[in-house]
């Protein structure tokens, strides 16, 4: 099929120029190569496409029909290339981004909103999901992911981190013996997040760290649910700080061991290795202050 398309394109240029030599000059080929491809095309369709003489070429009836279709094909191809070209002054096309559901209310959404305002010609699709999407299989252009990155053929860049709070409801707090050390929390009820291990690392102001391993009778698959069940008095949770700021201010949740902080989770941008400098992917990365780093 590739050879067929190449021959049709050469034939169309020959017909447009009216000679093998004229087509050869435009295409950067020799006249004999142009003649060869036209002959192969005639052999394939089992009919003459052009009448040759020493002075000029004339298309046969069948040649005229093929030339009309060839022109339509080439016009359509040029229009397609124009629509996906990133050299246009006004960016267009589509950009699909995926983020964890925990980032639904994260500050990074301000940057994404700014991108949408700057490039209104780009159709942006945003997927908030805790399922780690396959960028290639699911047609996703760029992903924002939390946690350590596995080795892959994709590009990635750390763009920040998610700060977390250790919280529970006032009701649950009142039922416990006041803790003095992180290990005192190992026997408390924790609400487990399915995609994270049953352990948390706490760091104090002196940069000392303590890892707590816990058991849980409740596991949920997203941060919003973990936070909600903590508000309902079922135990400790470690949601992002921006997610519980209002609840902490209103007293719906209380912060546990305030001199110790939950270790933040790194936030990465992940994208396709072949993204060009003028692509919509790169435009968003530039707004997120990313550089091309593996």
Task: Please provide a brief summary of the model.
Helices cover 36% and strands 22% of the residues.
CATH architecture descriptor of the largest domain: 3-Layer(aba) Sandwich
- The shape, in one word, is rod-shaped
The number of helical segments is 9
Number of domains as seen in the coordinates = 3
Molecular structure report:
By secondary structure, the chain is of the alpha/beta class. The chain has three domains: 83 residues, Arc Repressor Mutant, subunit A (Orthogonal Bundle), CATH 1.10.10.10; 89 residues, D-Maltodextrin-Binding Protein, domain 2; 101 residues, D-Maltodextrin-Binding Protein, domain 2 (3-Layer(aba) Sandwich), CATH 3.40.190.290. The protein contains nine helices and 13 strands. Strands 3, 4, 5, 6, 9, 10 and 13 form a seven-stranded mixed sheet that branches. Helix 1 crosses helix 3. The radius of gyration is 31 Å and the shape is rod-shaped. The relative contact order is 0.14. The mean pLDDT is 89.
């Amino acid at each position: 099929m590739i050879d067929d398309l190449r021959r049709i394109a050469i034939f169309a240029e020959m017909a447009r120029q009216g000679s093998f030599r004229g087509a050869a000059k435009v295409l950067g080929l020799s006249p004999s190569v142009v003649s060869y491809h036209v002959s192969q095309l005639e052999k394939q369709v089992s009919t003459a496409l052009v009448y040759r003489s020493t002075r000029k070429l004339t298309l046969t009836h069948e040649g005229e029909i093929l030339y009309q279709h060839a022109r339509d094909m080439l016009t359509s191809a040029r229009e397609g290339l124009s629509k996906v070209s990133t050299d246009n002054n006004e960016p267009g096309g589509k950009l699909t981004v995926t983020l964890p559901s925990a980032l639904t209310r994260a500050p990074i959404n301000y940057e994404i909103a700014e991108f949408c305002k700057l490039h209104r010609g780009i159709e942006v699709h945003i997927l908030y999901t805790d399922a780690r999407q396959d960028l290639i299989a699911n047609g996703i252009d760029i992903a924002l992911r939390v946690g350590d990155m596995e080795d892959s053929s994709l590009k990635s860049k750390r763009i920040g981190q998610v700060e977390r709070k250790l919280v529970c409801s006032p009701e649950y707090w009142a039922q416990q013996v006041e803790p003095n050390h992180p290990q005192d929390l190992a026997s408390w009820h924790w609400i487990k997040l399915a995609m994270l291990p049953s352990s948390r690392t706490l760091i104090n102001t002196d940069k000392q760290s303590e890892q707590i391993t816990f058991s849980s009778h409740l596991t949920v698959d997203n941060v919003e649910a973990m936070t909600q069940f903590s508000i309902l008095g079922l135990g400790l949770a470690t949601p992002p700080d921006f997610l519980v700021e209002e609840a902490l201010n209103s007293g719906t949740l209380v912060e546990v061991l305030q001199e110790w902080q939950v270790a933040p989770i790194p936030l990465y941008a992940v994208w396709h290795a072949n993204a060009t400098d003028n692509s919509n992917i790169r435009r968003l990365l530039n707004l997120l202050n990313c550089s091309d780093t593996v």
